[in-house]
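Q: Got a minute? One more chain.
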Amino acid sequence: MSMLDNLPGRVAVHGLVYNQENKILVMMRSQQDVDEANCWDLPGGGLEKDEDIENGFVRELTEEAGILAKNVVIFAAHEVDDGSLGLYAKADTEDIGITLSDEHSDYKWISENKLLSIKPASLHLRALQELVKTSKKSNCF
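A: Always. Here it is, folded:
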């Protein structure tokens, strides 16, 4: 049993995945997405029962993009009004080929500066943008 099992809402992990050129993976939500169709987003999703946070992020990345992550670091958390918990990760990948799941229709690799300028569609992307802005000011990244 994990300490996360006692939370009242969903636990999800999303993150910044960097390629060898130090670009970040963003993926466009598919038209089937009820809330965020055709919006850019970061990889991630809900943890399964008794799933380790890092393993959950690696699983989500593999399911959504068909790539493997390494050097996964959880660096922040954000509690949402509904009682759910958003966790934020940073990871690297050496994989080049992306295989999108049905959840996404497109992808691209972008710079941190570009990440800060795209319109956030989701709460976790907005939160990560703020974390990146803050960390740039304090040289955390």
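A: Strands lie at 11-18, 24-29, 40-41, 44-46, 70-79, 85-92, 104-110.
Q: Perfect, thanks.
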